[in-house]
């Protein structure tokens, strides 16, 4: 065996044994080469693939997209690439990753390489790289980041929006109101005599009361409303597209939901009531803080008038 034949045999062996797919298409989209990876994952042997149109072998291929990719390489004589992030797969090959990875088929990067004879492109070599592991890791990383972002916006005890998140949302809603007009209201409320609850029943009971109260309020507000904890026993609610009179009705609905029955904690029935201040966005206000100040003033008026009531800013 001479050196050139030996070199050719080595090249063929490498092509057959590499850990990614290699196949070659002519201008008519007929298969001219089909390596072991393609054979093993497709179940179609090279002898059955070579010479046949790729779309006869795989009718579910994205015909228009693949034809355009290959034709562009023939016309321009330059490489083309497709990431799994743009198109998760070209061939519906099974993968060997755990089913918990959340992907149905092997995720693939595809490279389209011109094969030249002189200055003429005579065929296009397509490589298929299995990037399933990479895609799963990236998805898990993105999910972890999203969870961290969500936790950063949530109050650890009640699971509702924390003060930072709430004020960010209120600032956004106030800016929308300034641009578009309409109505925007906010409620500010806290639990009556909550310090007495903590002193009498303990902080474990107090925490349970806060969690139950938060759930009761969450059950009666709309999806577009933003419910948040300001701190301690103080809470707030953003009511987009809601005039002051309607916001007062919502406040009463919330007040009744909070106080409908005592909270059962460790065999003890803890009575709960709330005082609520209601305010609406006012023309000329420089920022959302004015709404909070108005609602706070209404809240303290509700307390002065005997608690367990809703009061709108006058």
Automatic annotation (TrEMBL):
Keywords: Nucleotidyltransferase, Transferase. SMART domains: GGDEF. It is an enzyme of class 2 (transferase). Gene3D superfamilies: 3.30.70.270, PAS domain. Residues 182-314 form the GGDEF domain. It catalyses: 2 GTP = 3',3'-c-di-GMP + 2 diphosphate. GO terms for molecular function: diguanylate cyclase activity. Its EC number is 2.7.7.65. The keyword Signal does not apply. This is diguanylate cyclase. It comes from Paraburkholderia denitrificans. The lineage of its organism: Bacteria, Pseudomonadati, Pseudomonadota, Betaproteobacteria, Burkholderiales.
């Amino acid at each position: 065996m001479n050196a050139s034949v030996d070199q050719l045999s080595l090249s063929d062996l490498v092509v057959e044994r590499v850990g990614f797919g290699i196949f070659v298409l002519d201008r008519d989209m007929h298969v001219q080469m089909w390596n072991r990876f393609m054979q093993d994952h497709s179940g179609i042997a090279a002898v059955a693939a070579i010479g046949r149109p790729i779309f006869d072998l795989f009718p579910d291929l994205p015909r228009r997209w693949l034809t355009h990719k290959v034709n562009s390489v023939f016309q321009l004589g330059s490489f083309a690439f497709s990431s799994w992030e743009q198109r998760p797969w070209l061939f519906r090959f099974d993968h060997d990753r755990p089913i918990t990875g959340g992907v149905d088929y092997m995720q693939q990067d595809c490279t389209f390489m011109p094969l030249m004879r002189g200055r003429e492109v005579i065929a296009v070599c397509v490589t298929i790289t299995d990037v399933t592991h990479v895609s799963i890791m990236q998805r898990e990383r993105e999910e972890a980041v999203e969870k961290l972002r969500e936790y950063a916006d949530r109050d650890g005890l009640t699971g509702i929006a924390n003060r930072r998140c709430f004020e960010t949302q209120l600032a956004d809603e106030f800016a929308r109101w300034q641009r578009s007009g309409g109505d925007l209201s906010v409620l500010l409320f806290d639990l009556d005599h909550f310090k007495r609850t903590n002193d009498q029943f303990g902080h474990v009971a107090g925490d349970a009361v806060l969690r139950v109260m938060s759930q009761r309020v969450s059950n009666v507000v709309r999806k577009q409303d933003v419910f948040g904890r300001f701190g301690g026993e103080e809470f707030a609610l953003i009511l987009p597209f809601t005039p002051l009179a309607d916001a007062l009705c919502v406040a009463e609905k919330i007040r009744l939901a909070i106080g409908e029955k005592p909270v059962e904690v460790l065999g003890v029935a803890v009575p709960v009531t709330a005082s609520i201040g209601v305010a609406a966005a006012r023309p000329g206000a420089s920022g959302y803080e004015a709404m909070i100040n108005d609602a706070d003033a209404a809240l303290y008026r509700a307390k002065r008038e005997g608690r367990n009531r809703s009061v709108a800013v006058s």
